[in-house]
Amino acid sequence: MRPLTEEETKIFFEKLAKYIGRNIVHLIDRPDEPYCFRLQRDRVFYVSEAIMKRATSVGRDNLLTLGVCFGKFTKTLKFKLHITALEYLAQYAKYKVWVKPNGEMPFLYGNHILKAHLGRITEDTPEHQGVIIYSMADVALGFGVTARSTQDCRKLDPTTITVFHQADVGEYLRDEEHVV
Amino acid sequence: MDVTPQLDALKLKYKSVQVDKLIPVDFDLGNLVAFDTNALDTAALKQSPDNYLQQLARDGTQLLLNQIFALPTESTPDGVFAALPAGTSVLPRAKPIPKDKPMTRWEKFAKIKGINKTKNTRKVYDESVDGYKPRWGYGGANSTEDDWIKEVPDNADPMEDQYAKASEEKTARIAKNKTQQLRNAQEAAHAAKGVNPREARKAEVRKRILESKGATASMGRFDKQLKNEDAVKVKRTKRKFESNTRDAGVEKEGVMNVVKKVLKVEDGKVLNMTTAVKHVHQQGGERVVDMDERKKKKQKGRSKK
């Protein structure tokens, strides 16, 4: 476990900013308790200072997880967000997409969101923008990237893809062994 | 018949070849230039600048031509020619003076020994073809490739292929020359930097040895040591990370600096005009587009009917 280097921090926040924009400040500047980001086995964890200090007594090989895993760095130093980060992404999301009840299951099985399943979308969402996906009952289901802007979405074929799937809560079951 | 008026008219038409100047004009006949150092008549210049300057140019040219005609001439079937003397004006160079090429090792050696380069003719007479051949190069006189017979020296192995031997020697010569060229270029580069080429080469070799020794799995730790060999210690820069238990305030400050940089780039990317205008009008608040809005409206309309 170690703090992120400046380069890693930059790459990590650049990715986060695609989903929550300026709200990344709220992750660092918290009124309740000091929180920090720590790297352990290429994974980035968001953890309270107190817990992190306790975890320093655990050896590197024995420490599996602490706090919330936001994602991991690839060997080529790219950052990949994991579904476990959804809790915070959903809280501070800039652009949102709501799927209709009939589109929930297809999305939770890892499919892209079709126009027919698109319930609502934040106004003025640009193309290729990171978005958080909710059910119509405002339950966060995952996140992805828009294939079309909001304006383009209006006049589309029902079978065209509107949001590309990136992660969904179905992974907790499907990829249980990989979720940390 | 009196032809004086006609002659006067002709005289008026063509100006005199005689030009008077207060200060004699300087000439550089080699470059066909005349330098007139006389003061300008400012009144005349102001009155009609074009006329005055034209007059001045004409006089200067006349003087220059007078000088040229005074030169010794030579008459040929093509016409009369005057031989111009060498130019006296010094003209500035357009390009800087080329730098001396760095001397090669051979050139240095030859200079010390006093060996002078003798210029040979490019072509030499070849008896076998009864004609001239280049001294070297393509189809050169020194080529032994198309010899139809080769003598086997007394002390040589009789079964040895003399042709193969000759071609091998040639490739070896070319390779040697190439390494020498490379060495000369390297030495010149070092000398240009003000480094002693010999010392630079030594340092380079030492560095290479160190690198090769550190290239084993144990970074040279378990390698067999030669006699009188220095023990090699490969030092690599270690990665350094901040401490886990650093003061939270300091860490936060560092992270915030990175965030500021990231957000600056992010903000610069998109300024959606419509969003900005709406933001001002509505004082923020989330705006959502319902995809089934039209359908719902239609249905409402139907139910009313």
UniProtKB/TrEMBL annotation, chain A:
One cellular component (GO) term of this entry: nucleolus
Highest taxon above the source species: Eukaryota
Keywords assigned: Nucleus, Ribosome biogenesis, RNA-binding
Keyword flag Nucleus: yes
A GO molecular-function descriptor: RNA binding
SMART domains xrefs: PUA
Gene3D superfamilies found in the cross-reference section: 3.10.450.220, PUA domain (2.30.130.10)
Annotated ranges, domain PUA: 95-170
Location within or outside the cell: Nucleus, Nucleolus
GO biological process: ribosome assembly
PROSITE patterns linked to this entry: PUA
Family, similarity comment: Belongs to the NIP7 family.
Subunit structure comment from the entry: Interacts with pre-ribosome complex.
UniProt function note: Required for proper 27S pre-rRNA processing and 60S ribosome subunit assembly.
Protein name: 60S ribosome subunit biogenesis protein NIP7
Species: Geranomyces variabilis
UniProtKB/TrEMBL annotation, chain B:
GO biological process, one term: ribosome biogenesis
Subcellular location: Nucleus
Keyword Nucleus annotated: yes
Domain of life: Eukaryota
Biased composition, class Basic residues, residue ranges: 295-305
GO CC entries: nucleus
Alphabetical keyword list: Nucleus, Ribosome biogenesis
The keyword Nucleus is annotated on this UniProt entry: yes
InterPro entries: Ribosom_reg
Region (Disordered): 279-305
Pfam families in the cross-refs: RRS1 (PF04939)
Family the UniProt entry places it in: Belongs to the RRS1 family.
Function text: Involved in ribosomal large subunit assembly.
Protein name according to UniProt: Ribosome biogenesis regulatory protein
Species per Swiss-Prot/TrEMBL record: Geranomyces variabilis
